[in-house]
Amino acid sequence: MSTKQGQRGEDRAARYLQQRGYTILERNIRLGRGELDIIAQSGDLIVFVEVKAHQSRESSLLAMHPDKCVRLRSAAETWLSRHPNHNNCQCRFDLIILTPRVGLPAWIPPRIEHMEDIIR
After folding, report:
1. CATH number listed for the domain at residues 3-115
2. I need a labelling partner for 63 at 20 to 30 A (CA). Which of 15, 51, 73, 93 fits?
3. What's the whole-model pTM score?
4. Burial letters for 61-81: b for 16+ Cβ neighbours within 10 Å, e otherwise?
């Protein structure tokens, strides 16, 4: 996936979250070996959101392999250690998958699937 395509996917995901009442705290934060695409807040809940914009849902799910999950968890722990004002918040990891709508014009936005609490 190109950087431009990835950025458009993350922009769509951020708008999707904001429309559902989330506040976007930060985006594209690289910490050590991991990168956090979107860090959002809803009440006392901090949500670390991974965004995948692949050609198929299956390839997006396959990209969430165990090593990727370890890197996300490590990056989130580092982020939390640098933001002690969020120490009392609950945290979770979500995945947003954007897939193109096959056979439809390119101007029709991709399908968005929001999967909550993907890493335990």
Report:
1. 3.40.1350.10
2. 15
3. 0.90
4. beebeeeebebbeebbeebbe
